[in-house]
């Protein structure tokens, strides 16, 4: 077997048997009271999460995490995750509980949960990752869940959907646009088109992007979904709520035109695209909210106010 064949198989296998990140941190580490909750996606997959209440607040942010992460983040400072990501400059830990503390301090209730095949949530589709197409059912389940709770059903809802979480949110708007009638705002850090990030990952592994078609064929044989079926740029055409996107401009794992195209395709007037500069590390986009939360908090306050 050639080295290229081995690498293409390994990349394709990630869409069937990806490594789950643990729920390593808890809101109590930040002094937050959190209710452990479970609910189901719209197709019945069990989902696990936290509800973090904010006293006297009628504003709720639902947090959706990136691919390979859990609701608590990714321990990229530890093995085996460090070896997987350090070469691309993403060897630092990402702790999302810090995000929830910032949102709570700003007066927002928070629902954070693990997407299917991630964290402590249920397995589905034999472990297949859908780049957002299957995971959209989890986003829709979270919206249904907050409508079913007596203490959240009347709250103003915003979505904080990162990477795979953003892709899933866009796909959910394709599948059930009516479910977003009461959603007032979306903050979407670093959505990504699967073909774009895979082409960059191939190059970083020393494989020409000319092999992308061969990789696509392997992914279809394992998952039934092609790269064309996973095109987030097309899904962005169905976004219906005020949306703030942000992205590391020189992210070594993707290309600026990808998020720019998504932004251009979003058919609402109330939208903003912010670039994170002076970095090539994708993780800096995930940590941006902890470092400079003001624009994102202002977006939520203005639209959920």
Radius of gyration: 18 Å
Spatially, the strands of the biggest sheet line up as 1-2-6-3-7-8-9-10
Question: Helices and strands, in N-to-C order?
Answer: HEEEEHEHEHEHEHHHEHEHH
- Summarize the biggest pleated sheet: 8 strands, mixed
What is the count of helical runs? 11
Globally, the shape reads globular
List keywords for this structure.
305 residues; alpha/beta; eight-stranded mixed sheet; two-stranded antiparallel ribbon; 35% helix; 17% strand
Description:
By secondary structure, this protein is α/β, with parallel strands linked by helices. 35% of the residues lie in helices and 17% in strands. It has 11 helices and 10 strands. The strands form 2 sheets. It has an 8-stranded mixed sheet with strand order 1-2-6-3-7-8-9-10, with helices on both faces. A two-stranded antiparallel ribbon has the order 4-5. Helix 1 (3-13) packs across helix 7 and helix 4 packs across helix 5 (164-175). The radius of gyration is 18 Å and the shape is globular. It starts with a helix and ends with a helix. The mean pLDDT is 97.
């Amino acid at each position: 077997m050639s080295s290229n064949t081995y690498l293409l198989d390994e990349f394709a296998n990630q869409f069937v048997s990806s490594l789950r990140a643990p729920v390593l941190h808890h809101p109590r580490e930040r002094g937050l009271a959190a209710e452990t909750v479970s609910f189901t996606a719209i197709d019945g997959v069990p989902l696990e999460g936290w509800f973090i209440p904010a006293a006297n607040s009628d504003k709720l942010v639902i947090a959706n995490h990136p691919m390979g992460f859990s609701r608590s983040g990714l321990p990229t400072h530890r093995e085996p995750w460090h070896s997987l990501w350090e070469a691309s400059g993403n060897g630092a830990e990402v702790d999302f509980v810090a995000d929830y503390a910032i949102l709570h301090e700003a007066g927002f209730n928070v629902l954070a949960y693990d997407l299917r095949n991630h964290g402590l949530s249920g397995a589905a589709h034999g472990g297949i990752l859908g780049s957002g197409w299957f995971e959209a059912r989890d986003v829709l389940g979270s919206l249904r869940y907050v409508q079913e709770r007596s203490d959240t059903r009347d709250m103003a809802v915003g979505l904080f959907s990162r990477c795979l979480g953003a892709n899933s949110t866009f796909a959910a708007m394709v599948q059930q646009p009516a479910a977003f009638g009461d959603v007032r705002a979306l903050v979407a850090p670093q959505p990504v088109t699967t073909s774009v990030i895979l082409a960059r990952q191939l190059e970083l592994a020393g494989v020409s992007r000319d092999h992308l078609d061969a990789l696509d064929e392997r992914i279809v044989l394992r998952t039934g979904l092609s790269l064309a079926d996973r095109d987030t740029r097309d899904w962005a055409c169905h976004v219906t709520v005020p949306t703030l996107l942000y992205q590391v401009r020189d992210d070594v794992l993707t290309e600026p035109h990808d998020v720019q195209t998504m932004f251009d395709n979003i058919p609402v007037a109330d939208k903003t695209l912010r670039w994170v500069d002076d970095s090539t590390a994708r993780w800096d986009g995930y940590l941006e909210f902890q470092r400079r939360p003001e624009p994102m908090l202002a977006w939520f306050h203005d639209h959920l106010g």
